[in-house]
Amino acid sequence: MNILVCVKQVPDTTEIKIDPVTNTLIRKGVPSILNPFDGYAMEAAARIKDADPDTKIVVVSMGPEQAKAVITECFAIGADKGYLVSGREFGGSDTLATSYIIKSAIEKIEETEGKFDAIFCGKQAIDGDTAQVGPEIAEWLGLPQVTYALEAFKEGDKLRINKETEEGVLVVEIQTPCLITFTKPAWDPRYPTIKSKLAARKKEIPVLGVPELPEIDLSKAGLKGSPTRVKKTFVPQKKTGGIKIQEETGDLAAKKLFGLLNDANII
Fold first, then answer.
1. Residue 220 gets which letter from DSSP?
2. How far apart are CA 78 and CA 190, in angstroms?
3. I need a surface site. Which of 103, 132, 169, 200 has the fewest CB within 10 A?
4. Sign of the four-CA dihedral 144, 146, 152, 153
5. Which residue, among 72, 58, 146, 66, has the nearest Cα to 102 in the 3D structure?
6. How far apart are alpha carbons 181 and 6 in whole angstroms?
7. 120 near 45, Cβ under 8 Å?
């Protein structure tokens, strides 16, 4: 199986710094980590590789040069190859522009690595929390998709997905090629060994910029290709107080909530 895992480097801090001019994240000088949800996607791919050693895992990340660090981290836990998508022309991209750029990079990577049977993504990045890029990549590529996956298992030319829902876990079967986004499962991603870390540092990471992506339409990339406009950013004020409703069933809790709102003339 040929799996592509999309990963992102995100700030390792609760104090997100915003450029007041462009209203985009300031990443320079801020400690960064592998986006946790992307880590779950990488672990899901590694588990498929554990069961089928012929599986190849390719990682792609979009960001500045320093984003190579998360690709190297993925090498240490099972990825075979990795690519960085980077260029000034891509700066300031919103989710739509980002997904288009990554789609263009995927098509280029497939010329070397072959068609991917599955594309794994984290459900969202912790610095944006939009949960849009993965599904948008699927739309650009015309792939079927499953979101909020907990685990994935290869079954012939299909994947069996354990998907998180409000009612519990739903088992879904999907034909490859496909795109899957992962949320937090019951287990934690594996830790790399010293040996795998040393080996990971020796691997090269090709960079794909505009020269390597001659077919890309720059009107769909960067700030120019981003219909999203951030007008204001702020930290919400923490509110205290409130009433905790705790009943034996959801129906009883709903009735109590209705009574309280009715007594307060809110409804």
1. G
2. 10
3. 169
4. negative
5. 58
6. 10
7. yes
Kindly state the tokens that stand for 244: 């905790």
CB atoms within 10 A of CB 110: 14
238's tokens: 């923490």
Structure tokens at 127: 């610095």
H-type helices in the chain, by residue range?
A: 36-51, 68-75, 95-113, 133-141, 194-201, 250-263
Phi, psi (5° rounding) for residue 154? -80, 130
Scan for tokens 């592998």, then name that residue: 34
Q: What pTM does this model have?
A: 0.82
Summarised one tens digit per residue, pLDDT across range 101-159 is 999 999 999 999 999 999 999 999 988 889 999 999 999 999 999 999 999 999 999 99
Across the chain, which has 267 residues, the per-10-residue mean pLDDT values are 96 68 66 92 97 97 94 96 96 94 97 97 91 96 97 95 94 97 94 95 96 95 89 71 85 91 86
Contact present, 216 and 103 (Cβ < 8 Å): no
